[in-house]
Structures are given as structure tokens and as C-alpha cells.
């Protein structure tokens, strides 16, 4: 599942995400962990490009990759509207992508790495990140935690609504508690007032911090910090999302 069914309504259903504050956190990490701020930045699993655009407006030369053609189509259309035409959009899987050169920073937001279904896929993704990341560069990403999988996702149902869009979201947690299947039904109102329905299923997988640290090390990356918010506050047992900074040796 590549989130194609969500592409037309994705931004409307994620209005509460503060991309400006998230980009502020990223720039703080750039200043903490790099000799100077990057020029070339890769947005991995970029979706409809909200973070890509936030960083592009701040002067970064952006490349954006996503597996979904529909998500990329939405992103490219928005880029033209925003007059941000210097962004390079590429279609690719997180475990199998190619760039035209190296970058000084890689970012991946909104639990992109949780969509890697196994440790083998995680290793493949991190190996590529490390391959295209220049020494001294950073990889900034977030993960939904095991605590969130057990207590927030679980076997629960949710409904997300906005004008002209409804997403029904049914969760099924596996026995080990480390993976959730999301059964999605999206209703969208057309210009003619008629509603269309689309259905699909996707899965997220959670990884422990120990697993993530070991995977980063195998790829030649070092875990620099883990926080529960944009203020770099250390996580606790009830943290729902880890914000992780890793560096290339």
C-alpha cells in the first residue's frame, strides 16, 4: 500500500501538524551536530511535500522521494502553485532508490520508517541513507513508539473528518504488539456533490531504540539524540513519538 488513496485528502486530514516548529527543530539539530548547515537535503518518503516546501522556503536545495505516484503528483502540483519549482521529485522505495549525488542531510517525517516491515528492510533503507549522506551529515527522523502501538493504536477505530473528506481507520494489533494493520476507507466529495469511496490496507512496524541504534551502527551511522518533542526533551516510558538525530561518521 503506497497511500495513493489518501493523496487527495492527506493535507486536509493533517492540518494539525506544525511543520514550521518541526523545521525549527531540524535547524537546531543542524546547528548542534554539523559544522555548518546543509545546502542539499533529501526528504525521504515526502508524501505531498509539506516538509519539503517548508525547508525549501528556508533556502535548502531539496530532493524529495516517495513511492506513491499520486502523492508525488499532489506535491508537484503544490510546488507549482507555491512557485517552488527548483525541487527535484523522484519516485522510489525507501529500500531501493537512487540519487544523482550525495546530500548533507536526510529527513524523514511522520513515521515514514515505521512503514518498513522488517529489520532487513530497515537495514536496506539505512544503508542507502548512509551511502548518499556525506560524512558529517545528519539523518533526522521520527518513529511511533512501542508504547503508542499498544496504547493508542491497539485494536481501535478512528474517524478523521474535514470538509468534503472522511477517513475511517480501523486498527488491528498483532500478538507481539510490534505491528499494526490499518484498514482505511476514504470518502471524498466531488465537485458534483457525489461522494467516492476508496479502500486499502497498510501496516506499520515499531522498532525498539536498541534495534534502531544497532541498525544505524551497521549502516555506519551514529545515534546522536532521542527526544520526545521539538525541544529535545528526553523521552520517557509514555512517549508516543521519538524524534531521532543520527550522524554519518
Describe what this molecule looks like in 3D.
With 249 residues, this protein is an alpha/beta fold. The protein folds into 2 domains: 4-145 and 206-248, Vaccinia Virus protein VP39 (Rossmann fold); 147-204, S-adenosyl-L-methionine-dependent methyltransferases (N-terminal domain of TfIIb, Single Sheet). Helix content is 27%, strand content 34%. The chain is built from 6 helices and 11 strands. It has helices at 19-33, 50-57, 69-81, 119-132, 146-153, 209-218; strands spanning 40-44, 61-66, 88-91, 103-108, 133-144, 157-162, 165-173, 179-189, 195-205, 221-227, 241-248. The strands form 2 sheets. A 7-stranded mixed sheet has the order 3-2-1-4-5-11-10, with helices on both faces. Helix 1 crosses helix 2 and helix 4 (119-132) crosses helix 6. The chain is globular and about 55 Å long.
The computed structural class is: alpha/beta
Let me know the CATH homologous superfamily of the largest domain. Vaccinia Virus protein VP39
Would you report the number of β strands? 11
How many individual helices? 6
Q: Would you list the SSEs in sequence order as H and E?
A: HEHEHEEHEHEEEEHEE
Number of domains: 2
Largest sheet, strands/sense/barrel = 7 strands, mixed
Question: How large a portion of the residues is in β-strands, by DSSP E?
Answer: 25-35%
What is the level 1 CATH name of the largest domain? Alpha Beta
Indicate the CATH topology of the largest domain.
Rossmann fold
Low-confidence regions:
none
Q: What's the pLDDT, averaged over the residues?
A: 93
Overall helicity: 25-40%
Q: What gap, in angstroms, lies between the N and C termini?
A: 34 Å
Question: Shape, please?
Answer: globular
Q: What's the architecture of the largest domain in CATH terms?
A: 3-Layer(aba) Sandwich
Q: How big is the Rg?
A: 18 Å
Amino acid at each position: 500500500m503506497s497511500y495513493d488513496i489518501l493523496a487527495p485528502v492527506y493535507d486536509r486530514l493533517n492540518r494539525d501538524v506544525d511543520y514550521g516548529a518541526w523545521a525549527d527543530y531540524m535547524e537546531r539539530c543542524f546547528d548542534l551536530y554539523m559544522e555548518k548547515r546543509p545546502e542539499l537535503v533529501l526528504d525521504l518518503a515526502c508524501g505531498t511535500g509539506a516538509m519539503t516546501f517548508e525547508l525549501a522556503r528556508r533556502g535548502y536545495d531539496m530532493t524529495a522521494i516517495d513511492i506513491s505516484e499520486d502523492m508525488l503528483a499532489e506535491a508537484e502540483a503544490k510546488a507549482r502553485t507555491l512557485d517552488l519549482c527548483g525541487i527535484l521529485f523522484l519516485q522510489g522505495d525507501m529500500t531501493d532508490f537512487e540519487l544523482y549525488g550525495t546530500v548533507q542531510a536526510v529527513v524523514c517525517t511522520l513515521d515514514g520508517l515505521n512503514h518498513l516491515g522488517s529489520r532487513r528492510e530497515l537495514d536496506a533503507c539505512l544503508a542507502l541513507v548512509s551511502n548518499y549522506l556525506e560524512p558529517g551529515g545528519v539523518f533526522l527522523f521520527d518513529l511511533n513508539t512501542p508504547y503508542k502501538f499498544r496504547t493508542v493504536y491497539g485494536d481501535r477505530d478512528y474517524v478523521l473528518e474535514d470538509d468534503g473528506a472522511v477517513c475511517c481507520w480501523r486498527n488491528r494489533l498483532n500478538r507481539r504488539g510490534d505491528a499494526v494493520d490499518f484498514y482505511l476507507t476514504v470518502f471524498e466529495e466531488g465537485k458534483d456533490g457525489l461522494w467516492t469511496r476508496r479502500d486499502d490496507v497498510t501496516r506499520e512496524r515499531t522498532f525498539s531504540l536498541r534495534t534502531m541504534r544497532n541498525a544505524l551502527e551497521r549502516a555506519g551511522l551514529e545515534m546522536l539524540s532521542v527526544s520526545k518533542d521539538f525541544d529535545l526533551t528526553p523521552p520517557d516510558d509514555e512517549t508516543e513519538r521519538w524524534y531521532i538525530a543520527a550522524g554519518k561518521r
